[in-house]
Amino acid sequence: MVKNALTIDVEDWFHATYLGVPEKDWPICEPWIKSNIHRILDILANEEVKATFFILGWIAERTPEIVQTIADEGHEIASHSYYHRQVFRQSPAEFAQDLRLSIEMIQAAVDVPISGYRAPAASIGKDQQWAFEIMVENGILYDSSMLPVRTPLYGVTGLPRFAFRLCEERILEIPLTTVEVGNIRLPISGGVYTRLLPISFTEWAVKRVNEVDGQPMMLYLHPWELDPQPPPLGRNAISRWSHIINKGKMEGRFRQLLSRFSFGPVRDVFSAELEIIKRIQDEKNLATGTTSR
Prior knowledge:
Blueprint: E1 3-10, H1 33-47, E2 52-55, H2 57-62, H3 64-72, E3 76-79, H4 92-109, E4 116-117, H5 130-137, E5 142-143, E6 164-166, E7 171-173, E8 178-181, E9 184-187, H6 192-196, H7 199-211, E10 218-221, H8 237-244, H9 247-260, E11 262-264, H10 266-269, H11 271-288
Parallel strand pairs: 1-2, 1-10, 1-11, 2-3, 4-5, 5-7
Antiparallel strand pairs: 6-7, 8-9
Helix pairs in contact: 3-4, 4-5
């Protein structure tokens, strides 16, 4: 049985890009993160499944005990940026500063190497290839920030559907998962897609990716998606709708997927590929006399 990658984007409800809550207002928003993280951890413990938690540095700085608890339960710790700013809205210098700050805050909470990164809102496109060099400079081995199909909000056409190497083969890109139905490529990675699409279709799609493509799926969700209450505010009706659609069904669907398919953290699912990436990075650093942060 193919083992799929299970990932959790650790952010609170007010960090969702399409809700448009200004950063200056985050400290006064009611936090849901603690209760929702513990709900996820309880589910994973019950199913005996480990996952990769992409943690927002802003969260790690303010609630380091959450990061420690996640690590203590044996899950993988990775970065989801610090401020949850879209990469295509940043300069290379701003991105580098944000990435380093996120790693610093996460490692202040728990002393583990940070090997993975996921950009907010899948916001790395063809014009942000410079981001991968910055990741490599900071010891990142893999990224999961690209969707290989164009949507109204994000995505890049022409990308491979499954894991491939970038930046002189020094980093592994693990795209968000899509399924091909005829000539149509559809996103099925998780989040709003798992909430919006019938669970029967999602199960069919995962099975197709595993058995027909012979590849692991990359499943993701946000802790607030398991909380049935609607967000207190939103920029407009459409953004609020996309934030709350089928939230009451998400926990049941999540449990169902965990029970019917095999899941694990990125470090396990892609262990062979990551060993190769690490060796390539080490050889390059040795040849140039540089070291990753």
